[in-house]
Automatic annotation (TrEMBL), chain A:
Organism: Palleronia sediminis
Protein name: Nitrite/sulfite reductase
Domain of life: Bacteria
Keywords: 4Fe-4S, Heme, Iron, Iron-sulfur, Metal-binding, Oxidoreductase
Statement: the UniProt record of this protein carries the keyword Nuclease: no
From TrEMBL, chain B:
Database matches in InterPro entries: DUF2849
Region (Disordered): 70-99
Superkingdom to which the source organism belongs: Bacteria
Bias kind Basic and acidic residues: ranges: 75-84
Protein name according to UniProt: DUF2849 domain-containing protein
Source organism (scientific name): Palleronia sediminis
Amino acid sequence: MYRYSEFDTAFVRERAAQFRAQVARRLDGSLTEDEFKPLRLMNGLYLQLHAYMLRVAIPYGTLSGAQMRQLAMIARRWDKGYGHFTTRQNVQFNWPRLEDVPDMLGALADVGMHAIQTSGNTIRNVTADHFAGAAADEIADPRPYAELLRQWSTDHPEFQFLPRKFKIAVTGAEADRAVIRAHDIGLQLVERDGARGFRVLIGGGLGRTPMIGKVVRAFLPEADLLPYVEAIVSVYNLLGRRDNKYKARIKITVHETGIDEMRRRIEARFAEIRPEFTGIDREILAGIAAQFAPPDWVARDPAPFHAARAADPVFRAWADTNVAPHRRDDHAIVSVSLKTPGATPGDATAAQMEILADLAAAHAYDELRISHEQNVVLPHVPRAALPKLHAALKAAGLGAANIGLVSDIIACPGMDYCALATARSIPVAQEIATRFEALRLEHEIGPLKIKISGCINACGHHHVGHIGILGLDRAGVENYQITLGGSGAEDAVIGTRSGPGFAYDEIVPAIERLLLAYLALREGPDETFLMAWRRVGLAPFKAALYGPHDTAERADAA
Amino acid sequence: MPRAFTPKVVTANALREGDAVWLTPEDDWSRDIARAELIEDEAVAQDRLLFAQAQADRVVGVYLAEAAPGPDGPEPVHFREAFRTRGPSNRAHGKQARR
Ligand code: SF4
């Protein structure tokens, strides 16, 4: 795992000290709110509906046990005993007092963490496949590149005032677990003729105008990564619209300029700046890569795993849903669900964080990940340790066997916390999860991704949910629009709107009708919801949602 | 025709704690909307808004929110404002915890 260099440590400490002075000047009246706001946002501090919110970056979703323990300490000492993990592999504290935030930043610096560039029109936290470095299907661990990008983008003088925020995601595998096609830049490690490089996509994004990213370079030699990314951001910085906030993201620049012209400009800029990269970036990358060396694997006979799987149906259900193949046969990747039906998606209490840190130390080489799906991942677990690990998770209330199923819902904070929200998302997720638990249909329904956003900004990725739910304010009442057939994976596609929205108390029954219709029409348990959608299209689902006769009438009323 | 003025309260977030507060008739800030000043006249509303905006040492993000008279004092009209008087619906935190 990457450990901060002296430079990193000095930098984040200095920023925390600066912010302490800025808060003091705000409180004594020497700074107005207009002057202070950009400063607090540069340090990840937002003002939400009920309180301030501190957003802390978890670069490429990777945490050590010590870092997780520190998050627990911060939650307990300065917040209300929990944290919320987000779709951008960040953690948010919902209740800090303004004057405590400098101490919180200091406590983060103590464990090599920060909240810099988790807001503002900057390059945000670089996200990555949460299975990176562990997945059986990847070419290489993409995190050294993500860390290189983090260092390059942090406080990059040219890119502190971009037209709009800028998000980069990286993966080392063909199976896209990092939603790279919905990012401003998506990077996929690929190999060509034995050489390593990147497939580079630009212009993906969700929000008001959702777009799937387009390939700007099919193969970029790995050594050219930094100059090429710099060329992309530099072209966007000049070309991106600053006249209209809703047209300022690179997806609109790509859409309006055309991918071919964008490519021409990026390649020209790349040719211009490439010679300036004389190799220091390569030395730095080599240093970083050494720190991402895999742990010293402990070879253990996986017999206890097979025995438990044969003997214990509860363990078997969990192992079959929450455990994924590891690059080593005798190890596995464990996803710990933060979606126990009824729980708030992505929330973990301080006690749960500490238990997870303890379990990582005992069974998983002291490493944890946060997934964009708002779960915690233990990336390297010897199979022999799985039964013990499962027992401990179960005892801590973290044993839900639902990864990738109907109750494993992404939900943004919505109007329970977020100042931008138009409706709530959390209680909708809670009710869908508890409803399907009561129906005992979850495993019958099989793989399904429901994603909920509380406004058009789409932090809950609803456009790329197999079922997406978007909360809106219709004439002063919460209203929920459904999209169907989206995907955030390698077959990424924006979902189709089903029709008129549903009131708060109608949305859960609507989802139930939708899924019962799917069970009735699928060709067998092997045909997932998404496959069935792709085969039959909207009509049967529309009928299930609105009734065969009701559709026209409701559409009129909308 | 200009739209008829609907009653308003002046609201904001407290500078230090960040929670929702409402301007009272006594020029103070209360954490209870029922103690807020219900403003029935547009000119008065603008005046009170300016007054509130000048209190940058105490509050942040001042705005006028629709409200309606209730038995104990002003009540929120829009659901967003109602949530601000209570707190989140997934946890008993925020103002609802103090009751
Ligand atoms: S989608 Fe909207 S409501 Fe949800 S967190 Fe993002 S901005 Fe807030």
